Amino acid sequence: MKQNIEEIQKEIVSEFSELTDWEEKFQYLIELGEELPKFPDEKRTEEYLVPGCQSRVWVAPKLTEGRLEFDADSDTALTKGLIAILIRVFSGQSPEDIANASLGFIEEVGLAKFLSISRRNGLFSMVQKLKGYAEKV
């Protein structure tokens, strides 16, 4: 059975807790970003661009059998890792669950504390874009 948003967040917190310092955590985020499937070139448009990010980040949703799936990409490695972790949490979930999700894992793994203000703002812009898609369905 598909994991729910809370279960996925717990899994992410557990994975990050095994990493000893921020260098390892940032490297792990970069590796997660490298695992994202290729983003379709035709979707590199303003429509899918996340506003409020210092880097360029694209997120494209598709609704399949009542569940949202997301494709994403970024032009920087760390930001690509951040969007990868967010779509890991949200892809395959119902729009209602996405729209109502509380993302405690961001604080628990320390992302909010260790990211620069501009990256932190970008992270929250990504969350808003993903939740915005869920609210429009």
From TrEMBL:
Source domain of life: Bacteria
Span of domain Fe-S metabolism associated: 14-131
Pfam families for this protein: SufE (PF02657)
InterPro entries listed in its UniProt record: Fe-S_metab-assoc_dom (IPR003808)
Entry similarity comment: Belongs to the SufE family.
Protein name according to UniProt: Putative Fe-S cluster assembly protein
Native organism: Leptospira biflexa serovar Patoc (strain Patoc 1 / ATCC 23582 / Paris)
Name of the encoding gene: sufE
